[in-house]
């Protein structure tokens, strides 16, 4: 199956993540295809690139389906590749738009954040569980630039679920549209502002939190972001930390 559907018309490139049976999770192949398409269109003359997901969800994050066959080193390489993809989208010479619905989680939420225009279709929920779940610092500076340092720290440190209203009110999403009877989408009014974050969930400083603080509170650039990601992912036992996180999620769901 083609994991990425591409359509170009009138200067607009639409890239559709096409793994609906897996929640459009970011497999190595899908990340490579996305990376190649973004770089190719940096020189193709398009004025806009639209990212969307097939099926119920935009993107449920890093694909963990083949975790048994992974090693710490292979997982590190995959996360580095995702960070490079996020940087390519963030610095692309054209307008970038994300159209999200359903679950937008982990690296999928980072993909959403990297786009300049971030639109929710109907309803969506977001979460950034990497740091709290398995000690990974990915995309934090970009999130802080969108929603502010304090809120980004709360969301990343807690891994809490963020609903449509909060995402719109706090700047994570820039627009909301709902489907009409004819299948088109119409904009909806801006939501009322909601209260600020609770900082009670911020964990005691540990190696992950130390790296997180560096990503949040110091000036940075793409090279520094990549270095912080690598430092967080290169800590011994990445695969075991992810396995523990997956087991905890399954236990919570059951």
The rounded distance between the terminal residues' Cα atoms is 31 Å
Q: Beta-strand level of the residues, as a percent range? A: 15-25%
Order of helices and strands: EEHEHEHEHHHHEEHHH
Number of strands: 7
Mean pLDDT figure: 86
- Class computed from helices, strands and strand pairing: alpha/beta
Largest sheet descriptor? 7 strands, mixed
How much is the radius of gyration in Å?
17 Å
The number of distinct helices, counting runs of at least 4 residues, comes to 10
- Quaternary structure of the protein: single chain
Strand order of the largest sheet: 1-2-3-4-5-6-7
Contiguous uncertain segments of 5+ residues: 188-205
The percent range for helix content is: 40-55%
Shape: globular
Plain-language structure description:
Strand 4, helix 3 and strand 5 (117-127) form a beta-alpha-beta unit. This protein has a 7-stranded mixed β-sheet with strand order 1-2-3-4-5-6-7. It has helices at residues 28-41, 72-90, 107-114, 130-134, 140-147, 149-158, 164-169, 207-217, 222-234, 238-253; strands spanning 4-9, 12-17, 48-53, 95-105, 117-127, 175-179, 185-187. It is built from 10 helices and 7 strands. Mean pLDDT is 86; it is low at 188-205. It is globular, with a radius of gyration of 17 Å. The chain has 254 residues and is of the alpha/beta class. Helix 2 (72-90) runs parallel beside helix 3, helix 5 (140-147) crosses helix 6 (149-158) and helix 8 (207-217) runs antiparallel to helix 9 (222-234).
Features:
about 250 residues; alpha/beta
């Amino acid at each position: 199956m083609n994991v990425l559907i591409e359509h170009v018309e009138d200067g607009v490139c639409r890239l559709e993540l096409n793994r609906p049976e897996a929640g459009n999770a970011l497999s190595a192949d899908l990340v490579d295809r996305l990376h190649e398409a973004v770089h190719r269109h940096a020189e193709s003359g398009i004025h806009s690139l639209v990212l969307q997901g097939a099926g119920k969800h935009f993107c449920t994050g890093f694909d963990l389906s083949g975790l048994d066959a992974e090693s710490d080193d292979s997982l590190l390489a995959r996360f580095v590749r995702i960070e490079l993809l996020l940087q390519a989208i963030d610095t692309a010479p054209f307008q970038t738009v994300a159209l999200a619905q359903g679950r937008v989680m982990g690296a999928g939420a980072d993909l959403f954040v990297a786009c300049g225009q971030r639109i929710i279709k109907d309803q969506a929920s977001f979460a950034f569980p990497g740091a709290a779940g398995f000690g990974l610092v990915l995309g934090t500076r970009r999130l802080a630039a969108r929603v502010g340092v304090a809120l980004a720290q709360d969301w990343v440190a807690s891994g809490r679920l963020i609903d449509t209203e909060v995402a719109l009110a706090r700047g994570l999403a820039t627009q909301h549209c709902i489907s009409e009877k004819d299948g088109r989408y119409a904009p909806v009014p801006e939501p009322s502002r909601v209260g600020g974050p609770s900082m009670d969930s911020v964990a005691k400083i540990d190696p992950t939190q130390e790296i997180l603080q560096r990503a949040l509170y110091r000036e940075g650039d793409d090279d520094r972001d990549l270095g912080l990601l690598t430092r967080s992912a290169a800590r011994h036992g990445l695969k075991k930390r992810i396995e523990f996180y997956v087991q905890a999620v399954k236990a919570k769901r059951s």
